[in-house]
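re: ur question from yesterday

yeah so i grabbed the chain u mentioned. its 474 aa long if i counted rite. heres the sequnce exactly as i have it in my notes:
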Amino acid sequence: MTHHFARGLLVLTVLGLSGCMTFSPDGGMTTVSDLTSQTINRDVAFVRTAEGAEAVNATVHRLLARTLTTESAVQVALLNNKGLQAAYNELALAETDLVEQSLPPNPVFSISRISGNGASEIERQVVGDILALATLPFRTDIARDRFRQAQLRAALATLRLAADVRRAYVRAVAGNEMVALLTDAKATAESTAQLAVKLGETGSLNKLDQAREQVFYAETTADLASARQAAASARERLARLMGLWDGGLDFRLPDQLPPLPRRPQALPSIEVDAVAHRIDLQIARLELTALAKSLNLTEATRFVTLLDLAGISRRTQDPEGPPFRERGFDVQFQIPIFDGGEVRVRQAAETYNLAFNRLTERAVNVRSEARDAYRVYRSTYDIAGHYQREILPLRKIITEEMQLRFSSMQVDIFALLTEARQRLASLRGAIDAKQKFFLAQSDLQTAVNGGGAPASGGDNSTTIAAAAPADGGH
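ran it thru and got these structure tokens back, copy pasting raw so excuse formatting
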């Protein structure tokens, strides 16, 4: 009987091993690369060896040697950010869970010896978890869905980092542009303030007008200090996202933001695109699928949570007679007297309903976010274009005309300085409008493909207790 059981257990184990998963050469990164390349068209790398680290460092140093563009900054971050590498480590850990869940349970062998008064007894047992072995294909299927979720989460972390880098890059370059503008404005205000002091000494300028010129210089100086601090902070955030150490902190950025595109994007089906492509929605859908399979498994095993079968071989040595052998088997299972599995089924059902409602809520929010992101994108494009086409050219005409009138002594210097203040305000507004447009452009891409800040209850997967754990419910 024991030999027959051992052979049967071996056959079942071999059948279970036929469906076992093995570790992939890339740790699941091919799927992550395919998903992200469709959106950001940048290379990703999971650094696991010294040779890989050397190749990544060489690429990063080559990119940092040139003036950074938005795309090169994103590429540096995708290769060099250690937080993203940690997300890829989590993907590798998820693969270990998949392989573990696909393995059949190990049989347990036990041996005991009892002796006394010249008699001895030796007992050997081979115990197998039949329930865990029977549910192995179902648990493997669920684990495969979980691993697919982990791949999507790694892709989502990649998109999120790329979006953060784009925003930080826009703010850093806009900060540089604002600093350059205010530096020139401060030089002009300083010359004006010095002229006001000299005119006051000759009695040609009263104290009120002197104070007006002095306060313009003081305010411009304070604005310049604030702009420098904001630009330095934006640069530091960009450096953090790119994962730069001391050697890479001297990276170069352009002096100003690129010009606006000639025409805005037309996205008539943006809501459909967002629902179809958002990675956080794909994660939620896979979560719902896994929960549905877990619910079915829980219902199928609601009355049986423990089923162990043991083959027993016992040899007894009696001093008064010849030794003899005994063979048999032992079956252990729970009797569902107090818990008939209703609690587990109810928990699994409510967990499924919870995930379904969160998925539905997330889909509604995604559609709204996509609509709002496109409206903001078009609005900021129109505003920034209005500055470029209307306000700044008119300001230039006004400045040129005021300078001509000042040269012909038709207006005094105070009118010229008043116009300079107004022109400075328009130039600052134009820089701010262009910055808002490029930020809105990044947010639009995020709204369609994912990668924004995690929403509460959004892309966090719902956790459940496994219906039939690997240890058979022990």
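noticed a couple things. The longest helix spans residues 136-202. also The beta strands are 108-116, 119-129, 307-317, 324-333.
anyway ttyl
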